[in-house]
Amino acid sequence: MSSSSTVDLSHHLSNEAKLRLPNPMKEIWRLARRKPNMVSLANGDPHSSLYPIKGLQFEVASLEEEDPVAAWRTAGPSAPSQILKSSRDDPCILPVQTAFQYTTGAGLVEAQQALTELANFYHNPPDHVVTLTLGNGDAVTKCFRLLGNPGDHFLADEFTFSALANAAVPQGIRWVPLKIDEGGLIPEELERTMADWNEERGPRPHVLYTVPCGQNPPGSTLTVERRKKIYELAQRFDLVIIEDDPYYFLQYTSPASSDGAEARALSPSFVSIDVDGRVLRVDSFSKIIAPGMRLGWITSSAFFHAHLVTYTDSATQHPHAFGQIFITELLGPAGWSVKGFDKWVRSLRNEYQRRRDLFLSLFEKEVGPTGLARAGTPEAGMFVWARINVERHPRFRRDTGAAGARTNCRQLMVELFEKCLDGGLVVMPASVFALTLDPKYNDAENPIEDRFNYFRLTFAGTEEAMREGLAILGLSLREFFEQK
Amino acid sequence: MSSSSTVDLSHHLSNEAKLRLPNPMKEIWRLARRKPNMVSLANGDPHSSLYPIKGLQFEVASLEEEDPVAAWRTAGPSAPSQILKSSRDDPCILPVQTAFQYTTGAGLVEAQQALTELANFYHNPPDHVVTLTLGNGDAVTKCFRLLGNPGDHFLADEFTFSALANAAVPQGIRWVPLKIDEGGLIPEELERTMADWNEERGPRPHVLYTVPCGQNPPGSTLTVERRKKIYELAQRFDLVIIEDDPYYFLQYTSPASSDGAEARALSPSFVSIDVDGRVLRVDSFSKIIAPGMRLGWITSSAFFHAHLVTYTDSATQHPHAFGQIFITELLGPAGWSVKGFDKWVRSLRNEYQRRRDLFLSLFEKEVGPTGLARAGTPEAGMFVWARINVERHPRFRRDTGAAGARTNCRQLMVELFEKCLDGGLVVMPASVFALTLDPKYNDAENPIEDRFNYFRLTFAGTEEAMREGLAILGLSLREFFEQK
């Protein structure tokens, strides 16, 4: 985190962000710093002697074993563990009386330091700083508020995690879908969309929202070459990139090379090559620790950081003390440290890679012989994007003329989904991940509804669920495709 | 929480709230419930066997003593305590593998139940439900988003906690200040403002934001009579009330009657008399447990609850597992239970009442003899609103003609504030709490700047801070008022 970004990106701020006022009490506190030992009758903070909390303990996995995740998962109650502590009366990094006070939206200095160390270890971003968040949803939607005015256009993969993309819609942000292939976002599609933009449609997109690793749902991961091209296009067309990367730590080798091999090197993130300060990178502990953590961080330029902190002060306020203590002690010398954290996530990566490979071999066995579906091979994340070969169905039709679509793909997929449900299997159909967009701007030659022939399937569940689920899928496909 | 509210209040929703889409995956999960024992390949949730967390422990105050707060505050490390636990392997209300999963914005059922029991114990609101929040700031700003369109007018006390009120401004909400007296919001001022509203100014206010107990900064508390009148006016003028009540549990008897007396009965809240479902009540643990909790709750009609949950799903997502475990176990049979919680807050109330009375007696000794300032006697909260008798200053002038103001009150108060800082004391001047408003609608006869002659002083700090601080204040006043 050295050197200095010089590009002025203030025109990307939303009007809300520009209008937001800092807390006027901050100015009073600033003035009060002119003398040491100032007596304060200013703040209405409950005195820490009145917090009814003496200490917290978290019992977490120990990292003694070579493969700590496998040991932890299989050993049950006797699994080796270690204790993280915060106390009112005993030494620790974040004692109760410090951690449980009001802080600013930036969070506690100790927690920021811990996450800065982690961000540097993996990304070493040029001249960026860390802002604590309340998890991924909080982080991404704060970025939307920071950058989006009503009527603005944002770019994203045409299939994306809809709960998050939809969150921007009531704010007046309009999504512009980018076609994808198995490698995810196609730089040439991005270039074409920006270069051919018709201003009559409204302002040209100025934000790209992307999940570079294990994109949800298609499971795609951007190559280094695509990342570089996309960043260059962001510079050329003045785009801000929201890099939402919850699956960063779950990147896999190809199935052929994975047997016993070392975990693969992690792809360089957008933030690691961000010389302009135009990347807001969102990190999450939900997939590698637990979803209930509700603590994560954004890595961005100091400029965007300052606006994120002001917004946080005016909305959620600072993150909870519990999670800040947990993560500070976990990454600290009495916990795992960053090196131990890396050991855990490497081991976790191997665990999920085994699950992915098991899933793919079960798919090959149960579904492969039907010839009716094909599984992609995700290089990251938790999802297999399975293409259903819908054009082989006896009732498949082209040029149906139904609302925009040129085939009856959508209808057949609804029926197949129902067939699976009747068989006792629930999957996520592609339709729920299609970006909400103005039908006027759907691609008339190649409308998105004709690409609804995918199911998102996860390998994050149990082995039993994979075995049973894929058997049901194979059977449902066979029966459904025999229908006249 | 019986009977049923019948008033349709859907016209109060903001356009954002109306446009917000529920997560489309919810529909899939709903369909999947048609059969038991469905196999799922749908959700990308990390399996709980991979959470590296085995258990959590919170060591909290025990309630054995008659006056548990006094015992806890004075006993130091040997203070009697009890342990709250959540475990992966041992029985508890919220085991790790349940608490740390993804949940909806409504939070975990067990935590909702615990807070519902608490809300019923104190308010027994007619036909209302509880929504978990991430603390007071999160709750109030979510209410602003739920109800406010750009250009809308909201009502509030003219001096109010500015960090929160300012949060609504970038969203386009315009504040309409209501004049207050020592008893807080004056019902007749509310009636006059609504009845005399000139539509040329824009849409008539439809939301009242109010802090009924220990209003910050003036420390005022609404009488039962005022509450009833205000609720009737809300019905007559179709107002939604945001009842922000962080100091509810810190209500005091008058100084004369407080010596050894039982803690006073808590005033009936707006939500307890809300037959229409037009009150959104915001509760916080920050003042009675600790600010770092970042967990609270809103009590509202089921209608507003549903919109709050959808918004939470589209923004912060559900509250952190840590706080949900803490509060569920604390209020549960293995913790304090609601009865024990009530014992703690009664004891805490006595503690703050002692501090208030000490503060007032010190004020009487150090400042009273000057005749230059007068302390209000707050019946709740953490603040004394001290009136500075600025008109006694040799340089006090009327009809100065300076920007709106009719006196030089504002300027003299800036000087007095600086004088206190030079003496080593920091206080909060009234100016930082003045609502941001369009100068065009300032009261020309009685502009707010001429009422800036107040300091907000807290009695929440240490006895030493009160002694030293009030001595400095007395001295600063004397010296400042001798200036020619």
UniProtKB/TrEMBL annotation, chains A, B:
GO MF term list: pyridoxal phosphate binding; transaminase activity
Pfam (any one): Aminotran_1_2
Cleaved signal peptide residues: none
BP terms from Gene Ontology: alpha-amino acid metabolic process
CDD domains assigned: AAT_like
Aminotransferase class I/classII large domain boundaries: 89-470
Similarity remark: Belongs to the class-I pyridoxal-phosphate-dependent aminotransferase family.
Protein name: L-tyrosine:2-oxoglutarate aminotransferase
Native source organism of the sequence: Wolfiporia cocos (strain MD-104)
Cofactors (names): pyridoxal 5'-phosphate
Record bears the keyword Transferase: yes
Domain of life of the organism encoding this protein: Eukaryota
Keywords assigned: Aminotransferase, Pyridoxal phosphate, Transferase
